Amino acid sequence: MTHITIYHNPACGTSRNVLALIRNSGEDPTVIEYLKTPPDRATLERLIAAMGVPVRDVLRQKGSPYDELGLGDPKWTDAQLIDFMLQHPILINRPIVVTPLGTRLCRPSEVVLDILPQPQQGAFAKEDGEAVVDAKGQRVDKS
After folding, report:
1. Which keywords belong to this entry (predicted)?
2. Domain range spanning residue 6?
C-alpha cells in the first residue's frame, strides 16, 4: 500500500468518484474532510505549490462566497486569496489528491488515474453512469 491523501467533501459527486477510483486501485487513502478539518496555511501553500498551478486555479466559484467577496477582481494577491480560502474553506476546490506520483486537483475525476501508483482492479463508472474504467482495469477511451 502506498500513502495517498484525499482532501474530500462527501457532499461533492466528483470528490466521491475520485475516492471510489482510489479505492478501486486497492488503496485505502487518508481521507481529510477539509470542510471539517481545513488545512493550515503552510499545508495549503504546499499543496498549491506541489500542483504547480496558480492560486486562482484552486479557488472554487460555484456554491461558494466567491462572487460575494469579489474574488474575481485581479487586485487580490495570492496571499490574500489564500487568506480567503483559510477563512472560508468552501472556497478550496476539490478534491485534491496527494500520491507518491504527484498532487492534483482532480477535476474531472479521471485526473486521479494519472497519479495512482496502482492500476485499477476492475470496471468503474461514475455515479452518473459514465464508464471510466473497463472490466480489465483500463481507462475507457472517450474519443
Report:
1. Arsenical resistance, Oxidoreductase
2. 1-34+94-143
| 55-82 b/e (C-beta count within 10 Å ≥ 16 → b) | beebbbeeebebeeeebeeeebeeeebb
Cell triple for 128 = 452518473
Q: Does this model's pTM top 0.85? A: yes
Catalytic residue among 6, 7, 8, 12: 12
- Asked if 41 contacts 67 with a C-beta cutoff of 8 angstroms, the reply is no
Looking at residue 140, the DSSP 8-state letter turns out to be P
Total domains, the chain = 1
Q: What pLDDT score was predicted for residue 1? A: 59
- CA atoms of 93 and 43, how far apart (whole Å): 15
Does a structural domain hold residue 76?
no
Q: How far is CA 64 from CA 20, 49, 95, in A?
A: 25, 23, 15
Q: With bands split at pLDDT 50, 70 and 90, how would you rate the model's confidence at 141? A: confident
Question: Nearest 5 degrees, angle CA 90-CA 77-CA 36?
Answer: 20
Catalytic residue list contains 106: no
